[in-house]
């Protein structure tokens, strides 16, 4: 999510873009149970679960919390599509390091939504909180504008191919955030003018054609949310001497940030010990403009 973090839950428009790295799933009808195995980017199993196909009772699991989420998701799928109920072997594999926070849960919901042909938003809400923008962008495989209206998602695929993408890069902070925990601690009252201002920034960011305008929008967005959340921006807190713009992505203070600048600017973060610096073109899945 490039814009609208936190505010999207209160009706603001958000700009989201898909990443190249994701999660693949293989569904096979076989066996006497539902056997679920999740593998990391190295092929090692990090989660395993076996369920009764009739009532989804957990027979074996390596993590009861994750199993409970799967029960809720599969139960929604089977209630919506009872003809799908049965025994399966399901294997998932991440393309990225789990600690990166690139969407293991959202890609799970997107995959189940596609497999069962069920609407993604109520499926998400059956097991998770959150806005659902990350599920939507995964399903669209395209940059999107995302807004929640009357408790329903409004998703618009857009052409977003910034001409200045060579001046954008992502830096991993190494502090994975729990988005659901963040949601619980954020302010509950959001002024309508603030929501409108964030939405205006989102639409301007989606259309901007030069780095100077994009930088100004990033700085305005960060300042507005800093005031609302009563937290310093990540640039003020850690990177105050960086000669460029920095944008928090998702839950503030963890996972990745977006920064602007040439290759020498990337060296600034590496010299501070942030070794995972990824150019925009290497991170973002970019479908052909239409």
Would you kindly provide a written description of the structure presented here, covering whatever features stand out?
By secondary structure, this protein is of the alpha+beta class. The chain folds into 2 domains: 23-140, no CATH class; 162-283, Alpha-Beta Plaits (2-Layer Sandwich), CATH 3.30.70.890. The protein is 36% helix and 21% strand. It contains 10 helices and 12 strands. The strands form 3 sheets. The chain has a 5-stranded mixed β-sheet with strand order 2-6-3-4-5, with helices on one face. The chain has a 4-stranded antiparallel β-sheet with strand order 10-11-9-12. Helix 6 runs antiparallel to helix 7. It is globular, with a radius of gyration of 20 Å. The two termini are 22 Å apart.
Features:
single chain; about 290 residues; alpha+beta; Alpha-Beta Plaits; 2 domains; five-stranded mixed sheet; four-stranded antiparallel sheet; 10 helices; about 35% helix; globular
Mean pLDDT: 92
Which radius of gyration do the C-alpha atoms yield? 20 Å
Query: In what order do the strands lie side by side in the largest sheet?
Result: 2-6-3-4-5
- SSE string, helices as H and strands as E: EEEEEHEHHHEEEHHHHEEHEH
Indicate the CATH architecture of the largest domain. Answer: 2-Layer Sandwich
Number of domains: 2
Oligomeric state of the chains?
Answer: single chain
Number of strands: 12
């Amino acid at each position: 999510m490039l814009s609208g973090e936190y505010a999207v839950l209160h009706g603001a428009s958000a700009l989201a873009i898909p990443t190249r790295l994701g999660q693949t799933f293989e569904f096979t009808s076989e066996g006497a149970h539902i056997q679920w195995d999740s593998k990391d980017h190295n092929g090692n199993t990090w989660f395993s679960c076996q369920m009764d196909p009739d009532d989804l009772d957990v027979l074996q699991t390596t993590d009861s919390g994750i199993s409970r989420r799967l029960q809720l998701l599969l139960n929604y799928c089977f209630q919506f599509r009872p003809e799908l109920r049965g025994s399966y072997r399901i294997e998932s594999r991440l393309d990225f390091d789990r600690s990166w926070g690139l969407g293991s849960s959202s890609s799970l919901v997107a995959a189940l939504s596609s497999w069962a042909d069920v609407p993604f938003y109520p499926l998400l809400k059956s097991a998770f909180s959150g806005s659902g923008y990350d599920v939507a962008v995964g399903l669209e495989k395209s940059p999107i504008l995302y807004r929640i209206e009357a408790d329903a998602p409004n998703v618009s695929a857009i052409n977003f191919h910034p001409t200045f993408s060579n001046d954008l890069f992502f830096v991993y902070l190494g502090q994975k955030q729990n988005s659901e925990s963040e949601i619980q601690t954020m302010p509950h009252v959001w002024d309508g003018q603030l929501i409108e201002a964030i939405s205006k920034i989102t639409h301007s960011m989606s259309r901007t054609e030069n780095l100077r305008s994009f930088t100004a929008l990033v700085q305005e967005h960060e300042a507005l949310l800093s005031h609302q959340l009563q937290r310093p921006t990540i640039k003020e807190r850690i990177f105050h001497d960086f000669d460029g713009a920095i944008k928090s992505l998702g839950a503030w203070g963890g996972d990745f940030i977006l920064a602007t600048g040439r290759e020498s600017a990337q060296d600034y973060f590496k010299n501070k010990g942030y070794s995972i610096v990824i150019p925009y073109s290497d991170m973002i899945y970019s479908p052909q403009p239409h």
